[in-house]
Design brief:
Strand 7, helix 8 and strand 8 (about 220-225) form a beta-alpha-beta unit. The protein has helices at about 15-20, 30-35, 40-45, 60-65, 95-110, 125-140, 155-165, 200-220, 230-240; strands at about 5-10, 25-30, 55, 115, 145-150, 170, 185-190, 220-225. It has one domain (about 5-240): Protein of unknown function UPF0759 (TIM Barrel, Alpha-Beta Barrel). It is α/β, with parallel strands linked by helices. Strands 6-5-4-3-2-1-8-7 form an eight-stranded parallel beta sheet.
């Protein structure tokens, strides 16, 4: 497959050896809920082919407040008295340390992209924009690209301004919204209307046309990460449309 086009899944839908043989990239989800140890991240890097690409979601302590149900998956729960110290890019020591742990894992994996996925509750409001700006002004970026996936009612002009100011890839589901800034293009597909959605051949053809247009215009790369119940099958079917090797068989 052309390096200008990279397709994979958000998480491991099958055993790692099979996944490594099937796809060129993965977006890790465990780093969002409870980051693994650096030693385990290095083990995954060593198991993968040299040209395999890891991307990952930043730890939820940076983006999500403790009101999020995803905090139930933390090994150590946050005390109620400290709830205001986490999430929403707050300028706190707790958020800074959460980034440091995320960055440690990204370095161990030699990650290409770190994704900051925000909840819909992180709205386009003055305080949120201020915290967001302060966080990225202070951030030590290192060598990985940073992607931002805003949810909710964020106007394109605001997203474009913030993304360009801090050189963030505007991460979108291309069936829901167009990216307004950044190359490479980074797409996350959550299922049309619902997580259990299975993409039709018509959907995948439309997606291929959109990806091909970006590759032709910007000379790639385009990341397409499926994040739905049928992600392994949908990603394999979609990848087959671009792969010179032909369809990828299910095993």
């Amino acid at each position: 497959m052309d390096d200008a086009f990279l397709v994979g899944c958000c998480g491991w839908p099958e055993g790692k050896p099979k996944y490594f043989a099937r796809f060129p990239v993965v977006e890790l989800q465990t780093t969002f809920y409870e980051p693994p140890s650096v030693a385990l991240a290095r083990k995954w890097r060593d198991l993968a082919p040299p040209d395999f690409q890891f991307c990952l979601k930043a730890w939820q302590l940076i983006t999500h407040t403790p009101a999020s149900p995803t905090y139930r998956r933390l090994k150590s729960q946050i005390a109620a008295s400290e709830h205001d110290l986490f999430g929403s890019f707050r300028p706190t020591e707790q958020v800074r340390l959460a980034w440091e742990r995320t960055a440690d894992i990204a370095r161990a994996l030699r990650a290409r992209v770190v994704v900051f996925q925000c909840p819909a509750s992180f709205r386009c409001e003055r305080e949120n924009i201020k915290n967001f700006t302060t966080f990225f002004e202070r951030l030590e970026r290192e060598d990985f690209r940073l992607a931002w996936e805003p949810r909710g009612d964020w106007p394109d002009e605001t997203v474009q301004k913030l993304s360009s100011e801090f050189d963030l890839l505007h991460c979108v589901d291309p069936f829901q919204r167009e990216s307004v800034y950044g190359h490479p293009v980074y797409w996350r597909l959550h299922g049309r209307k619902r997580y259990s959605y299975r993409y039709s051949e018509s959907d995948l053809s439309q997606l291929k046309s959109m990806a091909s247009a970006h590759i032709q215009q910007h000379r790639g790369p385009v990341y397409v990460l499926f994040n739905n119940v049928w992600m392994k099958d949908d990603a394999a079917r979609f990848q087959a449309q671009f792969s010179a090797r032909g369809p990828v068989s299910e095993r």
